[in-house]
């Protein structure tokens, strides 16, 4: 294999990765806040660390 073929293959692989990465949905600021809120509601320890602890019912 020639050196130019190796660089061509590398460039094609990089382009393919960039193309596939562009297809994945990105989280916006609203989505991140929603996700953090959902995680805090599901995990009481995480909620207490985030300062959003709910009082325990006895």
Summarize the structure.
The chain is mainly α and 58 residues long.
Structure notes:
This protein is mainly alpha-helical and 58 residues long. It has helices at residues 3-23, 29-42, 44-50. Helix 2 (29-42) crosses helix 3 (44-50). The N and C termini lie far apart (73 Å).
Jot down its keywords.
58 residues; mainly alpha; 3 helices; 72% helix; 0% strand; rod-shaped
- Distance from N terminus to C terminus (CA atoms, Å) equals 73 Å
Strand content: under 5%
Stretches where pLDDT is under 50 for at least 5 consecutive residues are none
Average of the residue pLDDT scores: 75
Number of helices: 3
Estimated radius of gyration? 22 Å
Order of helices and strands: HHH
Helix fraction by DSSP (H/I, runs of at least 4):
over 70%
Structural class call reads mainly alpha
Major sheet details:
none
User: What coarse outline follows from CA principal-axis ratios?
Assistant: rod-shaped
Tally the beta strands: 0
Set down the secondary structure blueprint.
Elements: H1 3-23, H2 29-42, H3 44-50
